[in-house]
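Budget justification, computational time. The allocation requested in the original proposal was used primarily to generate C-alpha cells for proteins on the priority list. As evidence of use, we reproduce two of the resulting records. The first is shown immediately below.
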Amino acid sequence: MSPIKLGKASTPQPPDPPSPDGQTPRAGEPAGTGELRGYEIGTGNKPKLKARKEAPGESKGISPVILFAAAGAVVVLLLVMVIGPSRPGTDAPTDTSKELSASYKAYLKQQKPPPPDIDERVRQVEERLAAIAWAERVGRKDVLRRELDLLLMMDTDRGSPIYRYASQRLSRL
C-alpha cells in the first residue's frame, strides 16, 4: 500500500532527481540541510523534511531581544524593591496606637497592686492594634470586629483606655 499524500489532487508528477547526498528532495523543500524531520502518513513513515544545520559561523548564544527583556525585568524588580510599598509608613505603628499603648502602660502602673506582666500586656495590645490597622487597610470588617472584641476582652475595666477605645470603635461599626 502506498503512503497517503496530502495536497491537491492532480496527475502524478515525475520524481525529482536525486541530490548529491543520495536523498531525493521534495518540491519546495531545501535539499541537504541536515537531519530528517517529520513523517508522511502511511505505512512507510518516511521522513519528509530535513532539519536545518547551523553553519559554522552562526552563534549559539541567546538572542539580543531576550537579553534586553531580561535586563528590563531585572531593572523593574530592583526599582520595586528600592521604592518599597506604595503607601510609605503603612506598616509602622500610627501615632494613635503609640499614644494608646503609652496610656495603657501608665494606666496599668497606676493600678493597686500593679500587675506583674505589664510589658506582656502592652505587647499584646500593640499586636492587636497592628492587626486592627491591617484590617482597616485591607477592608476586612470581620477581622476588625474580631480584633476589637479581643481588645475589649483584654481589660474589662471600663476606666481602661483600651476598653474605651475598643468600645468606641465597635459602636462606630
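The second record produced under the same allocation is shown here.
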Amino acid sequence: MIRDIDYVRDLLKEKEKKVTTEEDKEKIENLKLILENDKIFFIMDTSTAVGILDFLEVPIDEIKQLYFELISSANYFKGDKQYFNLETRS
C-alpha cells in the first residue's frame, strides 16, 4: 500500500506529543499549516521534503522510499475528480 499525506500527518501528530522545546513546537505549528495542502510534496523541493521527513523521525533508510510514494502518480490523482473514465463496452 502506498503511503500518503495522511500518513505524514499521523507522523506529525506523534512527533507533536514528544516535542519539548519552543523551537520544535513552532516547527510543528508551521508543518500543520504546510501539510494542509494535500499536494504539498509535489510543490516543494526535494531537500525540504527530506528535511520534513527527517524532522518527523522517519528512519534515514526509509526516507527515499516514502518520498517517492508521496510523489507517486497514485497520490497525485488521489481524491481528484476522474477526468478520464475508461469503460469497456460489450
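A brief technical remark on that second record: The chain has one domain: 5-77.
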